[in-house]
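Case study 2.
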Amino acid sequence: EVQVVESGGGSVQVGGSLRLSCTVSGFVFDDGSLGWYRQPPGDMCELVSLVNTHDEIIYTSAVKGRFTIYHSQDNDKNTVDLQMNNLTAEDTAVYYCAADGIVAGGRCNEGGYWGQGTQVTVSA
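Prediction:
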């Protein structure tokens, strides 16, 4: 059974930093992706960043230069952290970690393995 568990959300002021952590267990990372997605209030789900099995890293343009994804693997346990710096109010969202995540129709959790989500709130 694949389990995805996130931690590290919270409230921070504009310009602050947060680090999200995700542990994915029971998942064979041999041809797919591990990543972070977010859904702002009243808006569509979007990819934030992911790493794939070809060691490629993708960031959505809105977070380039501010967010960094880190991946480590120990047998069938993968850890995917997201370091978020210089946060803005537009980063406020529920953040989800997913393995082989699929977003469809603006909705998260349309395929793959997803965590429950962690709230990130950035205020002035």
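The chain has a mean pLDDT of 96.
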